[in-house]
Amino acid sequence: MTMTHVFPTYARFPFEPIKANGVIVTDNHGQDYLDFTSGIGVCNFGYQNPAIQNAVSVQLTKMWHISNLYENHLQESVAALLVGDEEKLVYFANSGTEANETALKLARKATGKTKILSFNHSFHGRTYGAMSMTGNAHIQEGYAPLVPDITFADYNDDASLNAITPDLAAVILEVIQGEGGVIVGDLDWLHAVQDKCQATDTLLIIDEVQTGIGRTGYRFAYEGFGLDPDIVTSAKGLANGLPVGAMIGKASLAPAFGPGSHGSTFAGNPLTMSAAEAVLTQLTPAFLDDVQAKATVVWQTLDKFDALKTVKSVSGKGLMIGIHLADDLPVNDVIKALHHEGLLTLSAVGNTLRLLPPLVMSEDDLTSGLNTIYQVLSK
Ligand SMILES: *Cc1c(COP(=O)(O)O)cnc(C)c1O
């Protein structure tokens, strides 16, 4: 492409996906790709999922937008599905960044404290608050001054527990750092962080924007770790591709978020809520069991990758996978080679090949995609 009227913030591959169905994406040259990206962990139910497509089509003929000045039964339904039988409340936003921004505001307002602890290699978004909590110097470069009173510690490091002190409003973390390289939180360390938060009256915010909505075989990944966060943020997979974010917080935080304290024009609109409702009603225990069963087969297949000279290690959980490549094999070269083999994949920090296939992908397609990757990495 020679002529562009779009700011060059994205390095784009030279083809355009123009349609998709199930787990197959088709580009403008007519080439089909097996999708190991789900957008970026968004289209967990694949493309043209009948229940989601039907819900949105029906809502489209009723009303797209009104505002948050009136009752909204779809927001109530989605919130009820997110909360289940827990004493929690939901605030709807338009993205993961915005959900984390909301969590930051609520944490400061509810505690009356200002300090936030985040972790190196984390990713929480790109607006000022969310970017200031993101532990990646490259993402913050050129944007100083950032939001004050946010500090960083090392992830999975016991020494970081000393940084959790009573003057903190909140600790924010991902139980698996996604953009940062698919780094899985250590179970004991995560519980030690939670214990220290509880002992110091510090809110624990878990960013489930990437790990949530079934990605690891649980509704939220923290459930698999047996954690009890005060605030959870969700987005990516929540409406299977329509822009949405959600912050789920303990009901005891409600007094800090009264009428007029926060808000959004678009957030929680009927169209995105109809999609989110159709996502969450399909995210049943049986569906999650099936994701876990498929993940077991996937991780058996991944076992043999460790022996490859081009692979340093493999990390992840469920259908969230990071293949850490040798330094002399740039991940972008691998992604391009896989395009030629008809497979879409992602990268993450640390020369990591990141795989986030739709959760509805069959065992056969998962295995066949992994074998394609194995062959490319064997060359
Ligand atoms: C993608 C992501 C975000 C940002 O979400 P956007 O919808 O792009 O704003 C925040 N946190 C995590 C963990 C993410 O993976």
Automatic annotation (TrEMBL):
UniProt keyword annotation of Repressor present: no
PROSITE patterns per UniProt: AA_TRANSFER_CLASS_3 (PS00600)
GO molecular function annotations of the record: identical protein binding; pyridoxal phosphate binding; transaminase activity
Keyword annotations from UniProtKB, A to Z: Amino-acid biosynthesis, Aminotransferase, Pyridoxal phosphate, Transferase
BP GO terms, sorted: L-arginine biosynthetic process
InterPro entries: AcOrn/SuccOrn_fam, Aminotrans_3, Aminotrans_3_PPA_site, Class-III_PLP-dep_AT, PyrdxlP-dep_Trfase, PyrdxlP-dep_Trfase_major, PyrdxlP-dep_Trfase_small
Transmembrane segments: none
Protein name: Acetylornithine aminotransferase
Originating species: Secundilactobacillus odoratitofui DSM 19909 = JCM 15043
